[in-house]
Specification:
Blueprint lengths: L1 H16 L4 E5 L4 E3 L7 E5 L5 H5 L3 H9 L4 E3 L2 H15 L17 H12 L3 H7 L18 H15 L7 E5 L5 H10 L2 E6 L2 H13 L6 E5 L9 E7 L10 H11 E14 L11 H8 L9 H10 L2 E8 L1 H17 L1 H7 L2 H19 L3 E10 L17
Parallel strand pairs: 1-3, 5-6, 5-8, 6-7, 8-9
Antiparallel strand pairs: 1-2, 3-4, 9-11, 10-11
Length: 400
């Protein structure tokens, strides 16, 4: 049969290029080992039609096959991700269909809201299982490298608030406030008066309840609101893990909106994931396609150079840029480990399909950050052309 010859040639090719700790089991009882050592990952092919995913092993094809049950995979998730990436790399052409493509997306308020709700409104209990106690769903900051996740997340928030020099009674806006950790910390430790906005109903309800329980309702307001509808003036603005949903062509308008909300002497911080492809291309080998289809609909990652240009076009001056890629690789790795350690509990909260999506997504992100496919940049900015003589001349103040 045609598929038998093609499969045989593919197996020979992979074996020749890389000794993978992989065993392949077919529906007819045949088995193939790809390395000399004991296999750490087993892929079961339940029927001949499933071979199409394996013989063109892009990360989108392999991910889809796993999520939809076309292929069964056994092994530790970190090893599964490593094997999948090796199969893609050794089989696909880097300049072909699964290269780092920049695909156009059409963003509307309705689509953006639906994308946010799809990703974040799984359930609060689902996120609570594998995040830290404060449920901070963004890159942590491992100042010394030995911090636990909860400590590193608080250090991240403090690092941001210190960078933008939050003062008592400053009016602070947090665009995409999640479950409220940053605005709560800004009010408790820095004495700020905060507004946090989100498009997620689940986040809004839990953040509001947390603020109430902590007795901060007079200093923190949580809103279910699109950033484009916010009015007023704020001394400080933060946006953490949100601008990935804006859309590359909308970034100048996004930063322009931020400028209109920022006080003349104010400071803002944009903390977000960026691609390392200078043409704003997505993760290679179909990784970006998988995330678009299953995890972050309409999400787009710009290169840091594009971010800085869009920020300037929006009337903001970048004052400080810090790359935290290694910190996000470590954060995602911890999240993936937490996910694996709580498999039984998570399976009670979501169906098998969503469990599989998030299992490979978290481990895949850790791999992507470690490989420098994607990065994380914090950019401090202020209104362009303003007098910034009050800003310290060195970065020393950020670490005091």
């Amino acid at each position: 049969m045609f598929w038998e010859k093609r499969l045989e040639n593919w197996i020979k090719h992979v074996r020749h290029t890389s000794a993978l700790p992989l065993r392949l089991k077919l529906w007819n009882g045949r088995e193939f080992d790809f390395g000399q050592n004991a296999p750490q990952v087993t892929i079961r092919v339940p029927q001949a039609s499933s071979l199409v995913y394996l013989l063109t092993p892009s990360l989108s094809n392999l991910g889809k096959a796993y999520v939809e049950g076309k292929l069964e995979v056994e092994g530790r998730v970190n090893e599964i991700i490593r094997v999948a990436n090796t199969l893609a790399k050794e089989t696909l052409k880097p300049e072909g269909k699964f290269a780092r493509l920049a695909r156009p997306f059409h963003h509307t308020r309705k689509k953006d809201a639906e994308a946010i709700q799809y990703h974040y409104d799984v359930s609060n209990d689902f996120y609570r299982v594998w995040l830290d106690d404060n449920m901070v769903y963004s890159c942590a900051y491992f100042e010394n490298g030995d911090e636990d996740l909860a400590t590193a997340q608080l250090k991240k928030i403090d690092h941001i608030l210190t960078k933008i020099q939050v003062r008592p009674n400053d009016r602070l806006l947090d665009i995409g406030c999640g479950w409220g950790a940053l605005v709560i910390r800004a009010a408790q430790k820095f004495g700020a008066r905060c507004v946090g906005i989100t498009l997620s109903q689940n986040q809004y309800e839990l953040a509001t309840e947390r603020v109430k329980q902590l007795g901060l309702a007079d200093r923190v307001e949580i809103r279910l609101q699109d950033y484009r509808d916010v009015t007023g003036t704020f001394d400080r603005i933060t946006s953490v893990g949100m601008f990935e949903h804006v859309g590359i062509k909308h970034l100048p308008a996004y930063f322009a909106k931020m400028r209109t909300l920022l006080a003349d002497d104010g400071f803002a911080m944009n903390h977000g994931i960026t691609t390392t492809d200078v043409n704003n291309g997505e993760s290679p080998y179909g990784g970006g396609e998988f995330i678009e289809n299953y995890v972050f609909p309409h999400g787009e990652l710009p290169h840091i150079s594009h971010v800085l240009r869009a920020m300037q076009e929006g009337g903001l001056e970048p004052l400080d840029v810090e790359n935290l890629r290694r910190h996000y690789a470590k954060t995602c790795s911890i999240w993936a480990d937490n996910f694996e350690s709580n498999t039984e509990r998570i399976r009670q909260l979501v169906d098998d399909r969503r469990f599989r999506i998030w299992r490979v997504y978290l481990a895949g992100c850790a791999y992507a950050f470690a490989q420098d496919w994607i990065s994380l940049n914090q950019v401090v900015c202020s209104k362009a052309g303003r007098d910034i003589s009050t800003l310290p001349l060195s970065r020393k103040y950020m670490y005091q």
